[in-house]
Amino acid sequence: MAQENLPLLGRNYAEFQALVATEHYPRFTAKQLCDWLYKKHVATFDAMTNLSKTLRADLNENYALGRSAPLEVRTSRDGTRKYLFAANEGRTVETAMIPDADRRTLCVSSQVGCRMHCQFCATGQQPWGGNLSAAQILNQILSVDECDELSNLVFMGMGEPLDNTDELLRTLQVLTTEWGLAMSPRRITVSTVGVRKGLERFLKESEAHLAVSLHTPFEDERRELMPASGGLSLKDLFALLRTVNWRGQRKLSFEYVVLAGVNDSARHVEELIRILRPIPCLVNLISYHPHDGAEFSRPKDMVLVRMRDRLNNSGVHTTIRASRGMDIDAACGLLSTTYAQRS
Ligand code: SF4
After folding, report:
1. Which helix (H) or strand (E) holds 59?
2. Which of 107, 114, 121, 332 is catalytic?
3. In a domain? residue 1
């Protein structure tokens, strides 16, 4: 029996053609499978009504489709929704839908836990649970209630996307290619702490926007806050970023989680200005969300306002990202952590 229980979700058109040839299905089945999975978003083989009954029975017997419904959904007072999906070995991952006026942004996870172990992050404190497959990543997008209304996708959920580059790039191919979901890469942003090999491939093989998790402009502090970022120094990271033209449609942003008394001083702001002013970019200041056992605290709102104004007045375009879904364990990794505790 061929590839029993392997999911079809996440395969590309050439792989469907190969599968169809191996299984001696009619040739046009490759296109039909892509259409049903990626354009019509069906969740079962039985819903693929233009395939013969025999073919559907064969698919049911030999393959999995790869879709699964969320285990839990929470809706915040501000409309933010957090979905919890089953992942590897009893673990879960989170997906957040953030509404803003007529936009619906989905924040997607790429790993179970995270090997970067950033000190301020709830996901980074979880035990490592492995990479998500492209099927598991795409399932988060296709199985939320708002799937057909999504305006933007951000890979900023649990995990470091460029520590799972093969599955990330496969996912991006399905999302942006004509036979797949045919989304514009300009609606997709991938975030990273800066993993050299993954970043080099992402910059070459994708046109999606890039968000770099910066969090401090000083190398020694960054290695302490984000131990795995030591793999690529700030100097090398910026050298790599300078190989791309960020003045075109592809955009670069920097995420900066503000930790009270840690990375919010005038010294930090002046160094940010020095290193960021030469690059066309946007800085997003994010107020830290404390969680149980965290050693950091949330800064006063005025601190963020002062940082933003100083950066903007110095030519570094900066916004403050509003805190959303505070009543539903909004910080990345919190809901899956509390779910594991409840289970
Ligand atoms: S902040 Fe991002 S990269 Fe760092 S531990 Fe959390 S999920 Fe991983």
Report:
1. helix 53-62
2. 332
3. no
Please indicate, yes or no, whether residues 163 and 199 belong to a single structural domain of this protein. Answer: yes
306 in a structural domain: yes
pLDDT at 225 over 90: yes
Q: Specify the number of domains making up the chain.
A: 2
Domain span including residue 316 = 72-342
H-type helices in 154-256, by residue range?
165-176, 196-205, 219-225, 234-241
CA distances from 317 to 254, 263, 277, 300, 310 (A): 10, 18, 9, 21, 10
* Cβ atoms 308, 285 nearer than 8 A: yes
Same domain (yes/no): 335, 223: yes
Residue ranges lining ligand 1, Cβ < 6 Å = 114, 116-118, 121, 123-124, 158-160, 193, 332
Per-residue pLDDT of 23-44, as tens digits, reads 999 999 999 999 999 999 999 9
Q: Please, how many CA atoms are within 13 Å of residue 324, restricted to the half-sphere of its CB?
A: 20
319 and 209 co-located in one domain: yes
Residue 321 phi/psi, 5-degree rounding, is -80, 125
Identify whether the C-beta of residue 53 lies closer than 8 Å to the C-beta of residue 61. no
| Active site annotation includes 94 | yes
119-136 pLDDT, tens digit per residue, is 999 888 899 999 999 999
CATH, residue 18: 1.10.150.530
Question: Where does a domain end: 14, 32, 64?
Answer: 64
